[in-house]
Amino acid sequence: GAVVSQHPSWVICKSGTSVKIECRSLDFQATTMFWYRQFPKQSLMLMATSNEGSKATYEQGVEKDKFLINHASLTLSTLTVTSAHPEDSSFYICSARDPGRGGSYGYTFGSGTRLTVV
Amino acid sequence: QKEVEQDPGPLSVPEGAIVSLNCTYSNSAFQYFMWYRQYSRKGPELLMYTYSSGNKEDGRFTAQVDKSSKYISLFIRDSQPSDSATYLCAMSAGSGYSTLTFGKGTMLLVSP
Which of A36, A88, B10, B24 has the fewest CB neighbours in a 10 Å radius? Predict the structure, then answer.
C-alpha cells in the first residue's frame, strides 16, 4: 500500500524557535495532505488541509501564522511551527489520500513527529 | 456532547481473550466507519472499514455498525500481545476528501 514518510520522528527545541516537519508521499502523488495534532490520551484533531500549489485550509481555532504549511510539490508538504512555545508540545501527524483505496477509507498516515518545546 | 465517544481504557485482557471495543456517535450523517490501530509514538494504520450498517470480518477482526443506535464495535478474537495498542474509531459523512472525526482511542493491553 501507499506509504507516507514523516520526518523528524521527534524533535526538541527551545521556546521561541521554529521547527519544520516534513511529510512525503512515497511512490504516489498527493495533491492533498492533512495535518493533525494529537495530545496525550486525546483524539486526532485536524489542524489543516494542505493543497498542492495553493494555500492551506485551516480548521477553526488554528493559527495560520503560527503553523505555516507549504505544499510545493505533489509529494511533499511541510509544517513549520513558528516561535514555538511549550504549549505547542504535541504529536503531529500528517496524512495523505491513498490512490489505491477509495472513499473515506483511503487515508494513509505518517509515523508522526513528537515535538517537545523547552 | 462530543461527536464521537470512546472509552480511553486501558483495557487489560489475557492472551487468547475476545476483545470488544466500542464507539458511540451523535452525528446521524456519518456513513463511513473505520478502525485504526496506533502503536505508541506511531501514526495510525487502517485496520477495518465499513460503510453504513452491518458486519465485516477480516481474520481475527470483526467490525460492526449499528446506525440505528449510533454504535460501532470492533471485536478481536484470540487476542495476542502484539495486539497491544491504541485503537481509534473514525467516521465521516461522505466519500472523497470528507473530514474524518476520531474518537479518543482505547488503549488495549494483552498480557501473555
Answer: B10
